[in-house]
Design brief:
The protein has one domain. Helices cover about 70% and strands about 5% of the residues. It contains 4 helices and 2 strands, in the order ββαααα. Strands 1-2 form a two-stranded antiparallel ribbon. A hairpin with a 5-residue loop joins β1 and β2. α1 crosses α4 and α2 packs antiparallel against α4. The longest helix has about 35 residues. This is Transcriptional regulator.
Length: about 120
């Protein structure tokens, strides 16, 4: 959580991005088992690769830069970008990021659980 002082002297509280990611990941894990999550991640990655091939760039941001450069240099065909497909690509990348975070947390929890259930190691005397 971050705080700042407002114009009227009051304190403004804002949740940290880390806590929002962890909360979203926890929500995903409460609804989707890790094995199914792995499958979904595989599908999301395929979808992202498909968008990369469709648009010829690695990310939506690169597409924006490429289109701007085309307009500024007056080169290229200035073909209209399918805004719905672009928004879907952004959403897919976001969903993939949260799914990866959730799977990482699930894997980390497994190690914590495994470590807490294993008997303590005997220390040499």
């Amino acid at each position: 959580m971050t705080t700042s002082t407002g114009d009227t002297g009051g304190t403004h509280y804002r949740r940290s991005s880390e806590s929002l990611v962890v909360e979203q990941a926890a929500d995903i894990l409460s609804e989707v088992p890790p094995d199914e999550l792995r499958e979904r991640i595989t599908e999301l990655r395929k979808d992202v690769r498909s968008y990369q091939e469709q648009f010829g760039v690695e990310s939506p941001d690169e597409l924006s830069v490429a289109r701007t450069n085309e307009v500024l240099s007056e080169t290229g065909d200035h073909a209209a970008v399918d805004e719905e497909a672009l928004q879907d690509w952004k959403t897919t990348r976001r969903n993939l990021a949260f799914a990866n975070a959730a799977l990482s947390i699930a894997n980390a929890q497994k190690f914590v659980t495994d470590d807490s259930q294993s008997p303590p190691e005997a220390s040499p005397s």
